[in-house]
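Handoff note, outgoing to incoming analyst
You'll be picking up this chain. Sequence as last confirmed:
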Amino acid sequence: MNMKALGLLGLAAAVVFVGLASVFSVNEGESALIVRLGAPVGVIDKPGLKFKAPFIDTVIVNDSRLLLLEPPAEQVILGDQKRIVAQTYTRFRIVDPLRFYQTLHSLTEARAQLSQVMNTAMRREFGRINLPTLLSQRRSDVVQNIQSEVSAKFAPDGVEIAEVRLHRADLPLETSQAIYDRMKSERQREAKELRAQGFEWAQLIQSRADRDRTVALSEAQRYAQITRGEGEAEASRVLADAQKGDPAFYTFYRSLQSYRQALADSAPVLLLTPDAEFLKALKSGPPESRAKGN
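Most recent structure output, in case you need it:
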């Protein structure tokens, strides 16, 4: 009885093992290639639970979504012998699992060959152009030519190249530093020229300002002298008219001015003779007083 139970248990385990070896699942976004004894017999691209011959069939599952290839950056020589550091990225998908298996066998081998072909196409295309072209709007045409070449190469292998882009295209560090130093020296030279030109303009403007200042001062002084002369002439005329109107009062007024200036600057004691002409107005008084005295 125990032997019979053990036999049934072993049979059930064998059935379960064979059943598990006969089924497999395909997820959304995947495709499966069934290989029987080394020869491909079918492709399954619909998701779900699938069956295969146990022990003799091998299932190779491939991702049917977009895959990314991003090789490391490399130095590339352009057509004008300039060196740049370029890095591309490529998006591709497996559209024919059967031909992919027959030619490339695995995704690892496909990535290696795609990276090599991409590098060769990039170097060939970049060798035909110069740096200004790569920095212009024609850059998209260059990338499109690379994508067309790679697509034509891998189309028979069941691989579709969906997109090729330049991730970076920079000058090497030593080249960038040399260009930076040259640009810096060029800007310094231009700055010196501009400073020299500015100094020259400043000197010119200053000389013109000094000349205009000298002319303005000369004109102002000439006008002031003319005005002063006219004023003095007018004062002399007024004074002469006043003197003609009353000569005696004018003489007395001038004597008082003389007293003010002489006595203000003299010592506390001033010695004069009694009959000095200087004291005549002081002793006689104003002209009206003298007239009354007479």
